[in-house]
């Protein structure tokens, strides 16, 4: 598959050795990782796991189905594939461009690289595009799953606002209440729909927050009028408004972390790999 212009193969290569699905101590996804016996079979979960949509039917044990009345898939590896849901913020504010860098393209690079790593590591990546248009790629263990996700990312475009129910988009990615969720966003969420939805999901959640230097640091000096990309409203912004925005982000970040959600700040103008590698290495260290 020919990769789109925004794709960054070097980013996926830089993250290749770090497990995307590494589980945090105390997270609900740690359940079922150890070997347990199937009732009445004498077999261990290290050899079998429950069937998930997208699994190759050739690996289903039909004899075990007859004995247990449940679908199980033979596992060659003791490690069970981890469902990893990627949520892409495709609302209008993600169209923000600074010094030639489009925030939405940076978000797509991150999701694509992580999805490619997840496929290589044998996990179950899926995608939900968060916008009024939406779009979903269900989980699959097929080696072409990364291509499907990249194709969906390439067709997505930032517009409008978040869907009415983020929970519905999360549910569409499959996998039940097991696995990890990675949301890539600028966290422009005036209605506060993102964090509560992630907390209610019961998943091992991370929010990757994209920011630009001007959003974070630059003083305007005097009030300027900007257009809100999601509402079209003309907004007067000064240093006080920027401080309020930063303060609100700090409050949201602290609330998310108290709720068990990782938050990773990523500067769109800087190389993406160091921040993402640091986050993934930290997850491995907390397993």
Radius of gyration: 20 Å
CATH superfamily of the largest domain: von Willebrand factor, type A domain
Mean pLDDT: 82
Low-confidence stretches: 24-46
Largest sheet strand order: 7-6-3-8-9-12
Tell me what portion of residues adopts beta-strand conformation: 15-25%
Terminal-residue CA separation: 35 Å
Describe the largest sheet: 6 strands, mixed
What does this structure look like?
The protein is an alpha/beta fold and 287 residues long. It folds into two domains: 9-23 and 81-285, Rossmann fold, CATH 3.40.50.410; 34-74, no CATH class. The protein is built from nine helices and twelve strands. A hairpin with a 2-residue loop joins β4 and β5.
In short:
With 287 residues, the chain is of the alpha/beta class. It has nine helices and twelve strands.
Using brief descriptors, characterize the structure shown:
287 residues; alpha/beta; Rossmann fold; 2 domains; six-stranded mixed beta sheet; two-stranded antiparallel ribbon; 9 helices; 12 strands; globular
Give me the secondary-structure topology.
Blueprint: H1 9-15, E1 48-50, H2 62-68, E2 72-74, E3 83-89, E4 97-98, E5 101-102, H3 103-120, E6 124-130, E7 136-137, H4 145-155, H5 166-172, E8 180-185, H6 194-201, E9 204-211, H7 213-216, E10 224-227, E11 234-237, H8 239-258, E12 262-267, H9 272-285
Parallel strand pairs: 3-6, 3-8, 8-9, 9-12
Antiparallel strand pairs: 1-2, 4-5, 6-7, 10-11
